[in-house]
Amino acid sequence: MLLADRVAIITGGAKGIGKGIALKFAEEGCAVVIADIDLKSANETLAEIINKGGKGIALACDVLDIKQIRAAVDKAIDEFGKIDILVNNAGGMLVAPKPIEDMPEADWDKVLTLNLKSLFLFSKAVVPQMKKQKYGKIINLSSAAAVNPPAHCIHYHTAKMGIIGFTLDLAHTLASFNICVNVLLPGPVRTDFYDPMLGKLTEKEKDVFFDELGKGDIPLQRTGTTEDVANAALFLASELSSYVTGDALLVSGGSPLRPVQTPIQKTLDA
Prior knowledge:
The chain has nine helices and seven strands, in the order E-H-E-H-E-H-E-H-E-H-E-H-H-H-E-H. It has 270 residues and is α/β, with parallel strands linked by helices. The protein has a single domain, classed as 3-Layer(aba) Sandwich (Rossmann fold), CATH 3.40.50. Strand 2 (31-36), helix 2 (39-51) and strand 3 (55-60) form a beta-alpha-beta unit. The model has no long low-confidence stretch (mean pLDDT 92).
């Protein structure tokens, strides 16, 4: 197993990409600490892990409350004796996209705070333990949209680009302590992240949306899955990546490369 005897904290680990990472890590022998504001869903994910023979704990945690964060970190150490891996996954859009001239200041503040401040606070709380251990893996979740942004999500894309800068700084600072810090940039993955944009579409209409999204924008011609991202996170969490730090890894089906063929490409492919 790639993560035997390791301990990981995964923020926002109750649903979506975070849940996918939690399940994957547990399959590979890792004790998983699911830190999520939604304790009910966190317990449901934990139950799946335990039913498959894994181990972990679920903790109610607001990733913007330093007291709750410190309590979660202390609980993880009390329970498992160490923290090997931190996955800063919590984040999201929260509000519908708008042109900058129509965007309320409160929307800007809300999105940047959730996506950036949460990384700062959780890393601040975990890094002392990793320094003490002389070992650690920190995996931050950005987005492929940080480097290839669609329109009208400037708050979200700014935050996700900020995560890349945060990662590079921390990777350089912590390298001498044998702590690797990397960032994943997922492309479109079907999760509830898209709910603010899709409004009240039916499930069938959502199927059509995600099918067209994959075929229209992604060279591999499909949207991603939570397991796609979890597999990349597993690489960065394991010793397979022991010589990798400060890296930004796209998990995006080839995006921002474009699947649309130019006339000369059509001629060559004929």
